[in-house]
Amino acid sequence: MYTCSPHSRIEFMNSEMAEWIGRNVIGEKISESVPELTFTCPEEAIEEARQGKTVKWDALNPANDRWYRVVNAPHENPDGSVSVLVMVRDITEQKSTEERVRLLNNFLDHVVESLAHPFLIIDPDDYSIVMANSAAKKAGAASGFCAEMGDDDFNNDNLPCPLDEINRTGKPVIKSFERELAGNSKYLEIHAHPFFDKDGNLVKIVEYILDLTEKITLEQALRDSETRTRSVAQSSVDAIISSNDEDVVIFWNDGARKMFGYREEEILGKPVTTIIPERYRKYHSEGVKRFLETGATSLTGRTMELQGLRKNGQEFPLELSLSTWRARGRVYFSGIIRDITDRKEAEQALAQRTAEVQERKEELEALIQMVAHDLKSPVIAIAGLVRSLKKKIDSNPQDENVGRIAEQILTSSQTMEEFLTDLLDAMAVEKTEPQLEQFNLEEVIEEVVSEHRPSIDEKRITVQTEFFASDSTVTADKRRIKQVFDNLVSNAWRYMGDVLEPTICIKIRDDGLFVTAMVCDNGIGIPQEYQKRVFDQFFRVSNSSQQKGTGLGLSIVKKIVEIHGGAIHCESELGKGAAFIMKLPRNPLQ
């Protein structure tokens, strides 16, 4: 403390002042000797003191960066002049504390304001609301009074305050209640915390209100969902089993009880390996461990056939669909299991029956092949003998009936020979692998046309070839492919009918890895209803009765094409001819 004269000279100073400055400066002018004290006694303060005013302020001393509280009071001297009594106190620590308190209060205000639920401070003397955050104001509690918690809470528009219980127990109170707001039920929970002074008197109640409507609604929905899920699961004839990451059973429906023989109370909490045969348990445990460590499994998302173990020790085949899910940081497994004992027995019986049928089929094929082979030789011999007989009759005709009979025998033997040849050929196509070689398709077609030239010329048929393929080389069984074109060209001239300009057209087109070939004619055609059956064995079109045939030719053609990895189909219009289009891979091995 010191006094400052009207001329800004120090007239008096106490020991604390001398200690603070470090020397005695009485009589010296502040601005000259002690400039660091100028902020404590500025000219404005002297002028206000002369007017009899006392002023105080907090000032930051730039010399030491500390805060001081300065009080300037007027002091009248004996000569009537007015000096300034200056009192200076270091309040740096107080300022720091005040700032911390201000920041803390500011932080607390922000925290309270940021709360999504209503927060209030209530005066217990008159139940008035002292403070309310935005959420409370939105709920209508910005001002007014709280209603004491009572029987009429549900009809009271004010917020209830459980004062009686707080006064009775002196402890925090939590109350839950339901209220109709805007036509909707709201489930609220009030937390009221009392604050007492040092004498134990209740001075404030801090209250916040939680809206539990969504939580309770979700819990109810969850309970309903669990009830429905359990009802569905229990009504399932399949076994539905769930386990956790410790590999113990946590859910077991009635279907599982019927299938495995364990009651729910017997199996819950037991290892899943209880229902797995001994020899598979190690693999199961390793699989579960691997999944928990890596998340990798080959079991989920598909149906597997495994073995189960009943309570009585009986093993049985089952079908398992497995799924996994995560909840609260844990992994869970669910399996839907179906007992396939009956299906397996049926499959085994079917497999046995199929094997028996296949065995009978093979025996029948062997019999047919033997009969056809054994018949072919005598038929050929008969045909040869009939030809010799006919030649002799032709050279020395005696009886017309003899020649006609010989002609009929020859025709019949040729028909039988053709049938047996086709029958053996059809069986050979299915039983033998194609002998692959590389050859030019155009050359094969030219050979086939050349071989049929006498019949083609006899019917005055024009043959047109259009080879659009830059390279018609293929890798295939040359003999079989030639057989395909031989059959198609033969059918074309055989079923030409009586047309004015009979024509057979053969085309080849390059389709990259494939070669497309077409053999078409403008003959009698094939009715629409028969076009899908022309490749069936022994099938003959009804309008082709004037032509003899076995009904095996086109079925052999289809088998040969498909064995090479190709496809063939027919396009036709009755009376306008038919077209057979086939697509062959250049190399069936690629």
How would you describe this protein?
The chain has about 600 residues and is α+β, with helices and mostly antiparallel strands. Helices cover about 40% and strands about 30% of the residues. The protein contains 16 helices and 24 strands. The chain has helices at about 15-20, 30-35, 45-50, 90-115, 135-140, 165-170, 215-235, 255-260, 265, 280-295, 340-395, 400-430, 440-450, 455-460, 480-495, 555-565; strands at about 1-5, 10-15, 55-60, 65-75, 80-90, 120-125, 130, 145-150, 160, 175-180, 185-195, 200-210, 240-245, 250, 305-310, 315-325, 330-340, 435-440, 460-465, 475, 505-510, 515-520, 565-570, 580-585. The chain has a 5-stranded antiparallel sheet with strand order 2-1-5-4-3. Strand 3 and strand 4 form a beta hairpin. Helix 12 runs parallel beside helix 16 and helix 15 runs antiparallel to helix 16 (about 555-565). Mean pLDDT is about 80; it is low at about 145-160.
